[in-house]
Inverse folding.
């Protein structure tokens, strides 16, 4: 499916509707996932999936039906189901009409080679890394994913939005008896994903992690690698809702246009960022997304605002972001380590959850590499620790930001050096 | 559908595979989400598709499509074989050898009294509007969120070994949350979302409307409640709370694929390694965990798992000792077992089944011990109800849990409400500190529909039942600075 398909099918639905308006939302994925562990491929999965959601709008009511069959008769049957729901549902007091005519499309980030690499080619590359790992007496686990994706939105008023892209990602955990190391890379262009580079980092982290010792609970200066920062940033983004803020039950209540973080912090979203592109619209309602600063020079500048709340409060609607960017400096993590006198280096965080939503306190564990840096060198590895801390407090105590790195296809994130990271308890490995 | 299944099996056999199976899955979901008095989601979703799994020379291949027809089935079988041929290039030893399973030709359907799809969608909406109205009528409630979800999953499974199984599974749940704001502070309180494989009769039994005002009032009371004293406390945990602690610290820890390292890159591994089996003291003598995928109305009670293994009942921990694991046909032979425990589950047709937590429950006492008896045995402790914050390390050792409602216990008596209670422990130490459980009358089959595992994440559902249980000297901290 593509732009032409969605334009044709919204016409079909528009011509056959019994209700005021109709919306067609489509996603397609054509991908291969290769998962490996215990030094062999444990899953090798190819899938081609179409997903279609049709929303019927009748006066102030709405109904949604879904199908995965894209034939015309199936689309019309699904339209009928959506209409039946809308016609039998009560009026929504927060009803908002579909957007008027406009075309929104993302930047071109489609690479044929990313889609076309075969499971066989991928297996050969994994085999090379496996041999390297075995020569180091390591076990490896990881995944290598590639595919093409399409996301589209169209309504009967002529509003259409779509985004087509490819993606490749490779991640690797290298394991020794008492240590592990992790690294990953992702990009729309598979040629930018360097499996050898990923393996080198994961191998070296596992070696540096040998013979870990216990660390006391306490507050520490930390170097959080981009992956560790990206692991907690979504919890910040989820809380940045204007309505929840106005209604008083999230951290950001009453803090708009006030300083909440270090002046060094610039956190923003931009679906048109060439280094970190994403869907340029809200998939549910087609609302275009633009570059928006959430935190600018430490000041809370914006919160995502639904179309209903914006209309009620006379505000500009700001869609939930599809990517996040933490602007940084020019030093790589390696250079930051070299210039550090005394800090903990955190590779990755795991199982992060809210402890207290109102205060935005999170908990989680370090994973796959917690080290002590002394006088520019990694000198010790530690058993993993649990943290209980606020990402806002961390961003307010930032000493330095480094060179941003692409993480998991949605984040472009700097490593940060921050003071007072609160480590609460240790584990046994 | 059965003819299409046989088409896949015949094609796979003609291609010379060692083993193949196909799952054709038809699914219908109705999801309604109400925020205050606004229906934010009224969805009626139908999906259908199929996935084919092929084993050749010890290597797996899997392919799937969302359009089910003979032509696609034949091409997908060939594609799965091509993928298996690719997997062969990264083989260790002789590769995968499946545990034996008898051939089954069977049909299993969830016993239901009232088909949840026969209930008009507007009736479901009106029920949630009534619940939300009752919550919003309570002073200081700023947000009322409620939802109903009903699902039917009709799966046809066939394998080259000759099994042909249809499983027709119904799952329903409903729940809600009230958010309070007072004096610049905020709390929330939820009515136990309580999924089961049952019909609409389960929703009727929940007394959703009758409890709404109480839940909202408790959300407000939480703001004015005292914070706990930090330090070692005895805990009495109710079934609505304990189910998640069981899920994270026992359920995931005893998934055999995780134990063997299959999930090392993301979902993690486990400390409960095979050499500990039969010897390791996981908990006190009072700790008995039974996996039971035949449990009436259990979320994993599906007759057969997603590789055609019949559902079973077995001990995972007996009298505190680690005795067994959940397993699949692939991993069970790796610890010398001849048969899988039937714990392979896939998220829809487009994912390969992986080892999932079964219906896993902490067993009650044979004696008629009441929750009040447990409270009476505590000098300085806390009663915890419902789910809150939860986190555990990737080896399933260090964990930290909150809850939804807390009461001080002093000198054997339930006292004032508390707030923001968090406890931390290490899995075997925690279960080692369990000293009493209530009787069967107080056991409840709580569970989860959105258990995440795999990479990218797959969702699965299972029941984790529990009685009330009492623990000594657990580290308690405050969840608010």
């Amino acid at each position: 499916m593509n732009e032409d398909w969605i334009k044709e099918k919204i016409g079909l639905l528009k011509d056959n509707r019994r209700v005021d308006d109709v919306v067609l939302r489509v996603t397609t994925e054509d991908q291969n996932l290769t998962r490996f562990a215990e030094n062999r491929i444990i899953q090798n999965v190819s899938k081609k999936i179409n997903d279609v959601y049709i929303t019927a709008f009748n006066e102030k009511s709405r109904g949604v039906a879904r199908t995965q069959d894209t034939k015309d008769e199936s689309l019309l049957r699904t339209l009928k189901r959506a209409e039946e729901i809308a016609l039998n549902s009560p009026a929504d007091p927060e009803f908002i009409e579909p957007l008027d005519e406009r075309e929104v499309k993302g930047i071109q980030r489609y690479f044929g080679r990313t889609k076309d690499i075969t499971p066989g080619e991928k297996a050969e590359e994994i085999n090379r890394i496996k041999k390297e790992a075995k020569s180091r007496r390591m076990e490896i686990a990881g995944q290598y994913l590639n595919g093409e994706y399409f996301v589209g939105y169209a309504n009967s008023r002529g509003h259409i939005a779509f985004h087509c892209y490819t993606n490749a990602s490779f991640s690797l955990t290298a394991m020794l008896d008492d240590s592990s190391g992790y690294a990953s890379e992702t990009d729309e262009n598979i040629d930018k994903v360097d499996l050898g580079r990923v393996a080198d980092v994961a191998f070296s982290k596992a070696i540096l992690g040998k013979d870990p010792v216990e660390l006391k609970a306490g507050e520490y200066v930390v170097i959080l690698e981009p992956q560790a920062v990206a692991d907690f940033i979504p919890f910040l983004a989820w809380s940045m809702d204007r309505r929840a803020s106005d209604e008083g039950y999230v951290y950001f209540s009453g803090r708009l246009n006030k300083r909440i973080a270090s002046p060094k912090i610039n956190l923003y979203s931009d679906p048109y960022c060439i280094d970190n592109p994403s869907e340029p619209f809200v998939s549910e309602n087609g609302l275009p997304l633009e570059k928006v600063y959430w935190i600018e020079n430490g000041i809370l500048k914006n919160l995502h605002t639904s179309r209903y709340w914006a209309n009620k409060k006379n505000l500009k609607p700001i869609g939930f972001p599809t990517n996040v960017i933490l602007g940084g400096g020019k030093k790589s993590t390696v250079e930051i380590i070299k210039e550090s006198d005394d800090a903990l280096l955190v590779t990755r965080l795991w199982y992060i959850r809210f402890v207290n939503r109102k205060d935005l306190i999170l908990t989680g564990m370090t994973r796959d590499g917690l080290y002590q840096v002394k006088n520019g060198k990694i000198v010790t590895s530690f058993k993993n620790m649990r943290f209980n801390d606020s990402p806002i407090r961390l961003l307010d105590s930032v000493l330095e930001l480094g060179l941003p790195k692409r993480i998991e296809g949605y984040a472009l994130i700097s490593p940060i050096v921050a003071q007072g990271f609160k480590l609460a308890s240790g584990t046994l490995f | 559908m059965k003819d299409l299944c046989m088409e896949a099996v015949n094609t796979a056999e003609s291609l010379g595979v060692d083993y193949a199976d196909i799952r054709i899955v038809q699914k219908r979901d109705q999801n309604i989400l109400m925020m205050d008095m606004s229906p934010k989601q009224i969805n009626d979703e139908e999906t259908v598709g199929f996935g084919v799994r092929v084993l050749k020379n010890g290597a797996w291949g899997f392919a799937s499509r969302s359009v089910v027809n003979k032509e696609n089935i034949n091409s997908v079988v060939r594609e799965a074989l091509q993928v298996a041929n690719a997997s062969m290039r990264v083989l260790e030893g002789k590769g995968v050898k499946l545990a034996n399973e008898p051939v089954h030709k069977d049909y299993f359907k969830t016993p239901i009294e009232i088909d949840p799809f026969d209930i008009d969608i507007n009736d479901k909406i009106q029920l949630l509007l009534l619940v939300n109205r009752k919550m919003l009528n309570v002073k200081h409630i700023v947000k009322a969120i409620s939802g109903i979800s009903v699902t039917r999953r009709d799966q046809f499974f066939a394998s080259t070994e000759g099994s042909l199984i249809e499983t027709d599974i119904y799952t329903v749940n409903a729940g809600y949350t009230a958010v309070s704001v007072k004096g610049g502070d905020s709390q929330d309180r939820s009515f136990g979302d309580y999924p089961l494989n049952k019909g609409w009769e389960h929703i009727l039994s929940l007394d959703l409307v009758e409890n709404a005002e109480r839940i909202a009032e408790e959300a407000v009371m939480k703001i004015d409640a005292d914070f706990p004293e930090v330090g070692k406390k005895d805990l009495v945990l109710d079934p609505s709370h304990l189910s998640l602690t069981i899920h994270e610290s026992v359920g995931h820890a005893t998934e055999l694929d995780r134990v063997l390292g299959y999930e090392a890159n993301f979902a993690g591994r486990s400390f409960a390694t095979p050499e500990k089996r039969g010897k390791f003291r996981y908990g006190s003598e009072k700790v008995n965990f039974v996996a039971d995928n035949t449990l009436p109305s259990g979320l994993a009670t599906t007759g057969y798992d997603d590789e055609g293994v019949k559902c079973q009942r077995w001990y995972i921990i007996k009298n505190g000792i680690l005795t067994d694991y959940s397993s699949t046909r692939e991993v069970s032979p790796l610890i010398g077992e001849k048969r899988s425990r039937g714990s392979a589950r896939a998220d829809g047709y487009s994912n390969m089944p992986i080892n999932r937590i079964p219906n896993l429950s902490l067993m009650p006492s044979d004696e008629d011990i009441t929750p009040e008896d447990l409270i009476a045995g505590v000098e300085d402790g806390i009663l915890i109800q419902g789910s809150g914050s939860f986190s555990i390390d990737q080896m399933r050792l260090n964990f930290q849990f909150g809850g939804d409602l807390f009461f001080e216990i002093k000198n054997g008596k339930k006292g004032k409400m508390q707030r923001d209670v968090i406890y931390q422990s290490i899995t075997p130490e925690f279960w080692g500190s369990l000293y009493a459980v209530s009787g069967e009358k107080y056991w409840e089959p709580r569970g989860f529909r959105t258990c995440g595992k795999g990479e990218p994440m797959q969702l699965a559902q299972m029941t984790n039942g529990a009685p009330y249980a009492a623990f000594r000297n657990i580290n308690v901290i405050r969840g608010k600075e």
